[in-house]
Amino acid sequence: MMMSVTSIRCLVIVFATILKITKAQIPGIGGCPNVHVVQNFDLHRYLGLWYEVKKYPFIFTLGGKCITAEYGLNANGTVSVFNKQIRNGREETILGSARIIRSGVLGVTFSNVPFQTEANYNVLDTDYQSYAVVYSCNSFLSLVNGRIVWILTRTRFPSQAVIDKAYQVMRSNGLSTSYLASTDNTDCPDELPNGIDSFRY
């Protein structure tokens, strides 16, 4: 039996939505859980270089190491996003931009990615000087959701006390720390290796 055009379109939309959700690697049932974001978020103090030290498994950075995120301020008031990692001995980068939605909540878009949509970027907490806990979640019809958490720090090798602060933020928001994977930050180059690729989406 032939499927109607409407049915095909619905399947395409569902498939595209599932693809979007699976970017966040930890699945859950129902809609995205409520979380508390940082109040009186100071964007200017948040700008600059952050090192990824832990995260929920994330498909786009599988096999990557020395992962960093650098944020700057564009002339139009949006935030420039420059993510970088080393994979298979080569540096991969991706550029994006973010806009402030409300305190602690940003919407981020990246160039050269399929299904160009705005990703939510929630800063659960940060002291601006040592750590930040970032959370993103997508849901499909409030039936299933996919979550990812990043722990970012201002140094590649933060103290355990800094990590413990980040863990406490996660626990207070009902987010498990057991899914966290450590990012390899050993033998990271101080200068660009031979060749720069875009993240492969």
Automatic annotation (TrEMBL):
<dbReference type="GO" id="GO:0005737">
    <property type="term" value="C:cytoplasm"/>
</dbReference>
<dbReference type="InterPro" id="IPR000566">
    <property type="entry name" value="Lipocln_cytosolic_FA-bd_dom"/>
</dbReference>
<dbReference type="Pfam" id="PF08212">
    <property type="entry name" value="Lipocalin_2"/>
</dbReference>
<feature type="domain" description="Lipocalin/cytosolic fatty-acid binding">
    <location>
        <begin position="41"/>
        <end position="183"/>
    </location>
</feature>
<keyword id="KW-0732">Signal</keyword>
<dbReference type="GO" id="GO:0006629">
    <property type="term" value="P:lipid metabolic process"/>
</dbReference>
<comment type="similarity">
    <text>Belongs to the calycin superfamily. Lipocalin family.</text>
</comment>
<keyword id="KW-0325">Glycoprotein</keyword>
<dbReference type="GO" id="GO:0000302">
    <property type="term" value="P:response to reactive oxygen species"/>
</dbReference>
<dbReference type="InterPro" id="IPR003057">
    <property type="entry name" value="Invtbrt_color"/>
</dbReference>
<dbReference type="GO" id="GO:0005576">
    <property type="term" value="C:extracellular region"/>
</dbReference>
<protein>
    <recommendedName>
        <fullName>Apolipoprotein D</fullName>
    </recommendedName>
</protein>
<feature type="signal peptide">
    <location>
        <begin position="1"/>
        <end position="24"/>
    </location>
</feature>
<keyword id="KW-1015">Disulfide bond</keyword>
<keyword id="KW-0446">Lipid-binding</keyword>
<keyword id="KW-0964">Secreted</keyword>
<dbReference type="GO" id="GO:0008289">
    <property type="term" value="F:lipid binding"/>
</dbReference>
<keyword id="KW-0813">Transport</keyword>
<dbReference type="InterPro" id="IPR022272">
    <property type="entry name" value="Lipocalin_CS"/>
</dbReference>
<dbReference type="InterPro" id="IPR022271">
    <property type="entry name" value="Lipocalin_ApoD"/>
</dbReference>
<dbReference type="InterPro" id="IPR012674">
    <property type="entry name" value="Calycin"/>
</dbReference>
<dbReference type="GO" id="GO:0031409">
    <property type="term" value="F:pigment binding"/>
</dbReference>
